Amino acid sequence: MHVDRDTLATALYVKIDDELKASPQLNRWRPAVGIAPKITDAELITLAVLQSVLGYHKEAQWIRYARKNLLHLFPDLPKQPGYNKRLRTLTSQITHFIRLLTLDTDLWQHPVRIADSTPVECGRSRETVKRSDLAGWASYGYCASHSRRFWGLRLHLVTTVHGLPVAFALTTAKTDEREVLVDLFDLDNGLLTHPDGLILIVDKGYRDAATEKQLAERGVTMIRPAYRTEPPRPGRALLRALRQSIESVNQTFKGQLDLERHGGRTPAGVAVRVLQRILALTAVIWHNWHTNQPVLRSLTAYDH
């Protein structure tokens, strides 16, 4: 099957629209009297996914592009302020659809998971830090992968070996990633279990005996780099084979989906823009899986 931007948009819209019709509780409340919006929530969320896939991090530029190139798919495009306002009210729906698309594949049933966290920078100047509405949530943190400090948040991800997100959290930069990892297994146990036990690949930042014990009690075998003073640990071959997958998933978010150029200035704005990118990656993998593409995490067919 030939895949391109339009086929992805059509398949995603149909999936979201059918779910909204089947689950009325997902629909936002609207007054009985008033002007009905011309563009539906299903269309708006699909439009937001295309924005991330096509690499438009500025909404005004994106709406101009959409008016020129996407009117055959979205004949009633909103203006930029309306698009921004509507999108910020859809965080719970977007979270639901990320899980829906994940469950609509058999990839989540694979017994191996990969966990990592990555910075979500929210500002660089001291004036931004002092005046930002994110103060109190965003904070200074350190990125060991790039040996730099940053001001912002941290995105914690648990994915399959294919890069499909199955659990995630957005926290302050100083939150201990080991604590967040354990919390993710408690909060979203449905996608983080396997009948034969789950194998979790992590990097050296998660090395901690207490964390390893807590996850073992939940049926999770942690495979991590050994300390220099430790004897060789089991699973070294699997760790060597999949260790680069941890960084490549983050690179997809940052390099192709512009995670650090989200443009959010408020907690709601940052949250929905991060979720927008997680949904975009999930939708691409979901569509590639259903169309039997050889590389599931490839955005090449859709990013132009």
Explain what the structure shows:
The chain is an alpha/beta fold. It has a domain at 109-262: Ribonuclease H-like superfamily/Ribonuclease H (Nucleotidyltransferase, domain 5, 2-Layer Sandwich), CATH 3.30.420.10. The protein contains ten helices and six strands. Strands 1, 2, 3, 4, 5 and 6 form a six-stranded mixed β-sheet that branches. The mean pLDDT is 90.
Low-confidence parts, pLDDT < 50 over ≥5 residues? none
Shape: globular
What average pLDDT do the residues reach? 90
Given helix and strand content, the structural type is alpha/beta
For the record, the CATH architecture of the domain at 109-262 stands as: 2-Layer Sandwich
Order of helices and strands: HHHHHEHEEEHEHEHH
CATH superfamily of the domain at 109-262: Ribonuclease H-like superfamily/Ribonuclease H
Predict the CATH topology of the domain at 109-262. Answer: Nucleotidyltransferase, domain 5
Fraction in helix: 40-55%
Gap between N and C termini:
18 Å
The CATH class assignment of the domain at 109-262 is Alpha Beta
Number of helices: 10
Radius of gyration: 20 Å
Number of strands: 6
Strand content: 15-25%
- Let me know the largest β-sheet: 6 strands, mixed
Topology:
Layout: H1 5-22, H2 41-53, H3 59-69, H4 80-87, H5 91-103, E1 112-123, H6 126-131, E2 139-143, E3 148-160, E4 165-172, H7 177-187, E5 198-201, H8 209-217, E6 220-223, H9 236-256, H10 267-290
Parallel strand pairs: 1-5, 5-6
Antiparallel strand pairs: 1-3, 2-3, 3-4
Helix pairs in contact: 1-2, 2-10, 5-10
